Amino acid sequence: MLRSFLIYLSKAAWAQKIATSWGLAWKVASRFVAGTKLSEAMIIVHELNAKGINVTLDHLGEHINTPDEAQQATDDIFATLDALGADATARGNVSIKLTQIGMGLDERICAESLERILARARQCKTFVRLDIEDTPYTDKTINLYYAMREKGYDNIGMAVQAYLYRAEADIRRMLQDKTRIRIVKGAYNEPPEKAFPKKADVDANYDLLAKILLDASLANQSAASQDGRFPPLPAIASHDEKRIAFVKQYAEKIGLPKNGFEFQMLYGIRRDLQEQLAKEGYAVRVYVPFGAQWYPYFVRRLAEKPANLWFFISNFFKG
User: Sign of dihedral through CA atoms 133, 139, 143, 149?
Assistant: First the structure.
């Protein structure tokens, strides 16, 4: 009930208008959003890099309504890529949502924008990850990913949500093309016919998917690039210490080197764990969102599970 209500609030224009005018809301959100400007986000990139942590930048935005908004979002992504391209010391890449560049408006516009983004990323010698959204866009996102691969772009990766029944089949298919995959638990309100309703089942599926990815990384001798821009095949995106412990133990069991996969976490959450893993020699990448459209992202993080309300509040004070 609370999850559904928070998902609703994340999409409600009236709620966004109220929250973004409320100073306390930004004070809390800014603990987990790296400012509203690219220059602020780049400062965070270097702070994390100095701790041995790589970054993926996300200029926040989604579900645009006009072609002009799609073009503006594309231009914002260009600016992010250019900032990385101009700074050879920045160990980072970019994540984007396809609804941000027109997927829900006009698939042709979206495809054209994505190809331009990938071409720009290639010039800037970096990588683009497609974030996965709710199930109305899952097949469209995967299909567009393959369309870009067919055009010769290999600087693109995918994300897969472990709470979906289809996740294992999607991963096995994409690994045939050595797709770089980030696994997440899932942050949307999906019906029980599409997603595991119980946390225990999601956790079990997450571990299964992690094993499949780690095995694939070992078989393909996948490794993170030395400049921190291109990830290995598996990106394990979780703050769940049990999931992290499972991945560490399984990787050690099969003899997969620590740079054969990477842990990914959200900016502002479990900084202590991020730094601990980096000190242990694991590849760690922090997802750093920024931009004026912070409200939907922040509320959706709260909606992932009701406990996150306390999780975010406690992390605000914990560091």
Answer: positive
- Residues whose CB is less than 8 angstroms from the CB of residue 275 and which lie 6 or more positions away in sequence, other chains included: 51, 53
Q: Are 209 and 238 in contact (CB under 8 A)?
A: no
Instruction: From first to last of the 319 residues of the chain, give the pLDDT tens digit.
Output: 555 655 555 554 554 555 555 556 666 677 788 988 999 999 999 999 999 999 999 999 777 889 999 999 999 999 999 999 999 999 999 999 999 999 999 999 999 999 999 999 999 999 999 999 888 999 999 999 999 999 999 999 999 999 999 999 999 999 999 999 999 998 777 889 999 999 999 999 999 999 999 999 999 999 999 999 999 999 999 999 999 999 999 999 999 999 999 999 999 889 999 999 999 999 999 999 998 776 767 766 666 555 556 655 555 555 4
Q: Is the CATH code 3.20.20.220 the one for domain 2-9+52-318?
A: yes
b/e for 3-33, b at 16 or more Cβ within 10 A? beebbebbeeeebbeebeeeeebbeebbbbb
Can you list the alpha helix ranges (DSSP code H) found in 180-303? 199-220, 241-254, 271-279, 294-303
- Tokens 């019906």 belong to residue: 191
What 3-state class would DSSP assign to 127?
A: coil
Selected catalytic residue, list 182, 229, 243, 270: 182
Tokens found for residue 210:
């992690």
Catalytic residue at 203?
Answer: no
User: Would you say the pTM of this structure is higher than 0.70?
Assistant: yes
Active site residue 182: yes
Please tell me which residue in 58, 76, 91, 131 is annotated as part of the active site: 131
For residues 184 and 97, give the distance between their C-alpha atoms in angstroms, rounded to a whole number.
15
Query: What is the b/e burial string over 246-283, where b = at least 16 CB atoms within 10 angstroms of the residue's CB?
Result: bbbebbeeeebbbbbbbbbbbbbbbbeebeebbeeebb
Rounded Cα gap, residues 230 and 24, in angstroms: 37
